[in-house]
């Protein structure tokens, strides 16, 4: 054994650059804005959704949406044959 550690990139090459990096930074900024005090006031109402208060449902929904967008943005671009 040579002691070298191979990284598994699963076909992705190098770090995120260009538009991809900008997209990840935009998602981070959106999360920062959506979970900050002024936006939380919007969801602090006496409304029930599926028997639960609106604020926790909205926070969980925003959190889940951000994770979904991050998964989408973090996927490796598909390489087309001959390109």
Helix amount:
40-55%
Beta-strand level of the residues, as a percent range? under 5%
* Radius of gyration over C-alpha positions, nearest whole angstrom: 19 Å
Q: Based on helices, strands and strand pairing, what is the structural class?
A: mainly alpha
**Main sheet: strands, sense, barrel:** 2 strands, antiparallel
Q: Based on CA inertia axes, which overall geometry fits?
A: elongated
What series of H and E elements makes up the topology?
HHEEH
Number of helices: 3
**Mean of residue pLDDT values:** 82
- Number of separate strands: 2
Our measurement of the CA-to-CA distance between the termini, rounded to an integer number of angstroms, reads: 37 Å
Major sheet strand order: 1-2
**Uncertain residue segments:** none
Architecture blueprint of SSEs:
Elements: H1 19-34, H2 37-43, E1 48-49, E2 52-53, H3 54-74
Antiparallel strand pairs: 1-2
Helix pairs in contact: 1-3
Report on the architecture of this protein.
There is one protein chain. With 83 residues, this protein is mostly helical. 53% of the residues lie in helices and 5% in strands. It is built from 3 helices and 2 strands, in the order H-H-E-E-H. Strands 1-2 form a two-stranded antiparallel sheet. Strand 1 and strand 2 form a beta hairpin. The protein is elongated and about 55 Å long.
């Amino acid at each position: 054994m040579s002691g070298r550690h191979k990284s598994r990139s699963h076909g992705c090459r190098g770090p995120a650059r260009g538009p991809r990096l900008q997209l990840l930074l935009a998602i981070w900024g959106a999360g920062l804005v959506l979970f900050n005090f002024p936006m939380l006031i919007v969801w602090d109402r006496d409304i029930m959704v599926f028997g639960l208060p609106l604020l926790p449902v909205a926070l969980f929904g925003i959190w889940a949406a951000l994770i979904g967008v991050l998964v989408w943005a973090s996927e490796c671009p598909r390489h087309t044959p001959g390109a």
